[in-house]
Amino acid sequence: MSKKSIAVSAALCAATGILSGFVLFTMGRARGFEAAESSIAAETTTTESTTTTETTTTESTTESTTTTTTEATIPPMNDDDTAAVVQKSYKTGYNEGYNKGLQEGAEAQIRIYEGQGITPPPPQQHVQTAAKRTVTVSGSFTVTVRALIPDYVTDYTTPRAAVVTLNQGEPVVLRLNDTVCSKLTVGQTYTFLVTEQSVSMDASLLNSDGTVSRDALAKRSFHLSNFRAPEEGETGSNCWRVKYQ
Q: Are 91 and 43 in contact (CB under 8 A)?
């Protein structure tokens, strides 16, 4: 085979690889978004009435207790919360569709190679996710509220989340609800409590000294119970006090 023929063959293989890679990405992304939107529509339809009922109950409970305590109860984040359902549905639907798209894209890539008489390359290995561990967490952390924002799922105006910062930390969004957000003031510092609870989280978030990494807050690895004014010694470098067993 002449040098010119070899060069042409090499260029053909390179072009084929680029084309098949693009096909793989496009199909995966398309399948992901298609499945995600379908899942969101189904989940949202079945949870609207339940969400309305729970909101009424929460507001009634909070109003009756504010006369005797300064703490504000934060309802557990569960599958009946509209925002949680939509976000969970989107993530589940997207992942399922994306994985299916990757599989179909890989099969299409093999057909392209075989159609041109080229031996397909070995399949790519997917990166494994961090191992999960089930642990019992508890404690508290102190943050400063930087902004109160809507969740942009239930509506675009009512504040249902707080942008907060730990001491010398980057902003993190805490998804709460409108009742709790109405009791927070931008610029003020609060201590949020984490009641003892069993959770499954990435092993990478569990420090060897028995503390939970600050990154667990941004990843919503646990539920919050309530909040109060910070006590002496809870600010500064001691703002994060969440541990695990």
A: no
Residue 53: phi, psi to the nearest 5?
Answer: -65, -45
Phi–psi pair at 198, nearest 5 degrees: -95, 125
Q: Tell me which residue of 132, 185, 123 sits closest to 159, measured CA to CA.
A: 185
| pLDDT tens digits for range 70-117 | 455 565 544 455 555 555 555 666 677 777 777 787 788 788 877 777
Q: Note if the pTM is more than 0.70.
A: no
- Distance (Å) of CA 58 to CA 20, 177, 226: 53, 10, 13
Q: What residues have CB less than 8 Å from 82, skipping those under 6 apart? A: 44, 47, 48, 51, 153, 154
Number of H helices, E strands in the chain: 4, 7
Alpha-carbon Rg for the chain in angstroms: 25
DSSP assigned state of 23? H
- Crossing angle of helices 3-65 and 82-115, in 10° steps, is 170
How many Cα atoms occupy the beta-carbon half-sphere of 167 within 13 Å?
Answer: 12
The residue assigned the tokens 């239930």 is: 154
